[in-house]
């Protein structure tokens, strides 16, 4: 049976047509079936979540995520589950408090049975997670476990982070919806940082309505919710997008696009929107992003680099070495270039509601 959407589950839970413990046990049954091949979880301990589910079933509806199982990327601190940040350096580390967004999700009623796999410090070195649609393919990183767990129907929702495509890439590879909001919209307290400028908290679901429900909790903005939601508080009907101004943006790396994706994109281009030329200032942004990320990673992971270097992967060690060699003046100029690029990117939307 196809798992219910988060919206449908939330509605049934709020009406007491389903119990939180029942919903969680259904998810745990699917986890038992698929986890041996998927390896989506870095740590799985359902006992605290089951105890909380029984409390929810005995009490009042707590919030919009009441009784919904939620995967948490192993980059977020959790007070009741270990957090290793995808690194052997932090194996067995037990934070004393939840990350801010984890606490917000719990307050909204979410149940957290385990931590999902992240690449090493949310960077390059992959974990064991497999793509749920094809075991020989990658699920994408760095939020590998969260995307795979949602795509496989193990959980309706999951948290992720993005420094460079770490939400949108696994969402695309796994065929689900990824929510990567604007930088700074969601607080990152209790989340292990790679790059202060680039790191962004977001999440995964199987439908746009579901991810909007999660986004409303992460941002504290109920206006982001779509559809009927969970019958909790006011909800907004989705806007009619038939008159949306769609811009078609090839970008500077169009020559790397596969033939099947190219054909699909060009088919859409013939039906909707108009093409937007890639501006000259866009092409250098990939190199700029890498420099900003490397310099800030060298500062964020300075302790690990100085004291546990042997436990870092070769690729991570090389990234930190390179970042440490970028001086503060060069980084200041890179940050100013980043601010200018963000302002210019915003101007692209003066004449378009969305870019494809």
Query: How many structural domains?
Result: 2
Number of strands: 9
Proportion in β-strands: 5-15%
Terminus-to-terminus distance? 33 Å
Low-confidence runs: 229-238
Please give the share of residues in helix: 25-40%
CATH topology of the largest domain: Amidase signature (AS) enzymes
Mean pLDDT value: 94
How does the helix and strand content classify structurally? alpha/beta
The major pleated sheet works out as: 6 strands, mixed
Number of helices: 12
CATH class of the largest domain: Alpha Beta
Under the CATH scheme, the architecture of the largest domain is Alpha-Beta Complex
Helix-strand pattern: HHEHEHEHEHEEHEHEHHHHE
Shape: globular
CATH superfamily of the largest domain: Amidase signature (AS) domain
Radius of gyration from the CA trace?
21 Å
Q: Strands of the biggest beta sheet: in what spatial order?
A: 1-3-2-4-6-5
Structure summary:
By secondary structure, the protein is α/β, with parallel strands linked by helices. It is built from twelve helices and nine strands. The protein has two domains: 6-224, Amidase signature (AS) enzymes (Alpha-Beta Complex); 244-356, no CATH class.
Topology:
Layout: H1 6-14, H2 20-38, E1 41-44, H3 47-58, E2 70-73, H4 100-107, E3 114-116, H5 144-151, E4 157-162, H6 168-174, E5 177-179, E6 200-205, H7 208-219, E7 246-249, H8 259-271, E8 274-276, H9 285-300, H10 302-307, H11 314-324, H12 328-347, E9 354-355
Parallel strand pairs: 2-3, 2-4, 7-8, 7-9
Antiparallel strand pairs: 1-3, 4-6, 5-6
């Amino acid at each position: 049976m196809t798992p219910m959407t988060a919206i449908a589950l939330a509605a049934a839970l709020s009406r007491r047509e389903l119990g939180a413990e029942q919903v969680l046990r259904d998810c745990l049954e699917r986890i038992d079936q698929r986890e041996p091949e998927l390896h989506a979880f870095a740590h799985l301990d359902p006992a605290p979540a089951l105890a909380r589910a029984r409390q929810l079933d005995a009490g009042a509806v707590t919030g919009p995520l009441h009784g919904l199982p939620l995967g948490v990327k192993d980059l977020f601190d959790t007070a009741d589950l270990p957090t290793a940040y995808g690194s052997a350096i932090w194996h067995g580390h037990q934070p004393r408090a939840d990350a801010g967004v984890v606490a917000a999700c719990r307050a909204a009623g979410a149940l957290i049975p385990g931590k999902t796999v992240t690449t090493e410090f949310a960077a390059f070195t992959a974990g064991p997670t497999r793509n749920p649609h094809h075991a020989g393919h990658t699920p994408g990183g760095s939020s590998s476990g969260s995307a795979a767990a949602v795509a496989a129907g193990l959980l309706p929702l999951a948290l992720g982070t993005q420094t460079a495509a770490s939400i949108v890439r696994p969402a695309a590879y796994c065929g689900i919806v990824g929510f990567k909001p604007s930088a700074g919209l969601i607080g990152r307290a209790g989340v292990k940082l790679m790059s202060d400028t680039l790191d962004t908290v977001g999440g995964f679901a199987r439908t746009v309505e579901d991810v909007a429900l999660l986004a409303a909790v992460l941002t504290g903005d109920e206006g982001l919710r779509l559809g009927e939601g969970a019958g909790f508080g006011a909800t907004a009907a989705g806007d009619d997008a038939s008159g949306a101004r769609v811009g078609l943006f090839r970008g500077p790396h169009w020559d790397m696009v596969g033939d099947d994706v190219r054909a699909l994109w060009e088919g859409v281009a013939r039906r909707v929107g108009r093409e937007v030329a890639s501006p000259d200032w866009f092409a250098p942004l990939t190199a700029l992003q890498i420099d900003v990320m490397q310099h800030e990673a060298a500062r964020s992971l300075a302790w690990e680099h100085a004291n546990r270097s042997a436990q870092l992967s070769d690729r991570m060690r090389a990234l930190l070495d390179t970042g440490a060699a970028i001086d503060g003046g060069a980084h200041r100029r890179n940050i100013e270039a980043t601010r200018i690029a963000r302002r210019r990117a915003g101007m692209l939307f003066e004449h378009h509601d969305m870019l494809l």
